[in-house]
Amino acid sequence: MAEHELEVEIVAEDRFVWSGPAQSVSARTAEGEIGILPGHTPLLAVLGDGDVVVQQTNGQTLTAHAEGGFFSVDNDRVVIVAGAATLQGESAGQGAA
Q1: Model pTM?
Q2: How far apart are CA 40 and CA 76, in angstroms?
């Protein structure tokens, strides 16, 4: 992982969804919207239903719809564990490798 980027992993209860380097991540938590940039303080939050938006280091935007779960940040590693998660453009139950 390069300096000044996030390592992001999104998983659902039943499958791996996506992982990769990112410039930023935003998501809905039980407390409201949150945005994460490199260097963010450690955090553990309850994930609300809504979109998780990942600004990838290659300039592309990845959007996943997540339902429940939790969101953790520690040492520029963001882990999103959702009850269910679907990448934008994929049908429910279809996995990403």
Answers
A1: 0.87
A2: 7
